[in-house]
Amino acid sequence: MAGTTNSPLPAGTANLPTGNPISLFSTFVHPSATQRVTDVLATTMLSEGRLVKEFESRLSSDLGMVNPAALNSGTSALHLAMEVAGVGPGDEVILSPQTFIASAICVVQVGAKPVFADIHYENGNINPADIEHRITPRTKAIMAVHWGGYPCDMAEIKAIAERHNLLVIEDAAHAPGATYQGQAIGSISDFTCFSFQAIKHLTTGDGGALCARDPEKAREVFRRRWFGIDRANSPVNEVGEREYDLSDVGYKYHLSDYAAALGLANLEGFWDRMDVRRARVQQYREGLQNVPGLTHFVHQTDRESANWLFGFHVENRLAFIRALKSRGVASSVVHDGIDKNTLFGGKRHELVNQRRFDETQIHVPLHDALTAEQVAYIVDAIKQGW
Ligand SMILES: *Cc1c(COP(=O)(O)O)cnc(C)c1O
């Protein structure tokens, strides 16, 4: 991934920028965060408590997440989803390779096998038409990764899952605030996993959330994020020990209050920032119409992307990257097919759309510090050719 620092870049002149290039990502920290976090430090109540609860209720009320449990990372959310979904040794989970390794590592962590399905070349999301023939008696779940924040074909995925009695797990690390046919991502599937890592939309430094639609499963998530102890129903007795009987394996995956304070600060103005991201994407798309060698991703109107990334396909990609770099603009594939890793079995040549995607996809800067002038500059830098 390219650098994550903010860049003090010049407004959109055609001049080459001096100083830092326009970075691909930035980390958003709301001005009120310092005070909020300082207040937590002053109370010395640092671990999971009142603010984690408040953060979770705001994730529900503001972002439409169902039963969100705040965790210490998106990877923890994926792993705990596997555990609570009952995915275990010998099971298989079908997912697309166009993602970060965390999506498949969690499958391996529970002793199961990631089975890769091909993607839509047009947007990098799993192609439902390539799922069904990969289902075996060992298949337990389908994982949908919303690449760059653009929601997968959830209706088709859900229909397949229902036909074969499979669970649906969403890796929505790129998609907080996205909607699919009017429904918030985080309210649709059996399990949805979010990341609050530093360069994601909403950061707690590191952090994540797991939404389980079934209230019973949600209770299990809350219990197993803290060793497997149900705190609310395990009173501390007179000799000073909590009374509980551990019945299954839990983890130390909870978020802490000082991190939740940062998350609460960053929820302020969340939708305004999402609007700005959408406007930047619109500006890119309008500015980059009919550019020879550049093909836009295809998006449908029944869903709203969270616009974590702005990507497209280019011919002669290395020349494109070098030309933009020489003009002070970062560009990156961010990730390409993770199936290539030895741990996941090595590159699958039959995934023809993934292999084409690996060759031509590219992303240019999109983040909360990116100005309209910078987008105009980048559009111009691209139109100069490569
Ligand atoms: C960031 C990310 C994760 C992991 O999130 P962390 O909070 O860093 O653990 C998982 N999946 C995808 C697709 C991601 O981009």
Give me a quick take on this structure.
The protein is built from 11 helices and 13 strands.
Spatial strand arrangement across the major sheet: 1-9-8-5-4-2-3
Q: Give the name of the CATH architecture of the largest domain.
A: 3-Layer(aba) Sandwich
**How many domains in all?**
2
Note the overall shape.
Answer: globular
Rounded to an integer in angstroms, the radius of gyration calculated over CA atoms is 21 Å
Classified in CATH, the superfamily of the largest domain is: Type I PLP-dependent aspartate aminotransferase-like (Major domain)
| Biggest sheet details | 7 strands, mixed
Question: How would you sum up this structure, described in words?
Answer:
With 386 residues, this protein is of the alpha/beta class. It has two domains: 33-267, Aspartate Aminotransferase, domain 2 (3-Layer(aba) Sandwich), CATH 3.40.640.10; 270-383, Aspartate Aminotransferase, domain 1 (Alpha-Beta Complex). The chain has helices at residues 33-43, 50-63, 74-85, 102-109, 154-164, 215-224, 257-267, 270-287, 317-326, 352-360, 372-383; strands spanning 68-71, 92-95, 113-116, 139-145, 167-171, 179-180, 183-184, 191-195, 208-212, 294-296, 303-304, 310-314, 361-364. Strand 4, helix 5 (154-164) and strand 5 form a beta-alpha-beta unit. Helix 2 packs parallel to helix 7 and helix 3 crosses helix 6 (215-224). The longest helix is centred in the C-terminal third of the chain and has 18 residues, at 270-287. Residues 73-75, 99-100, 102-103, 145, 171, 173-174, 195, 197, 206, 208 line the site of pyridoxal-5'-phosphate (PLP).
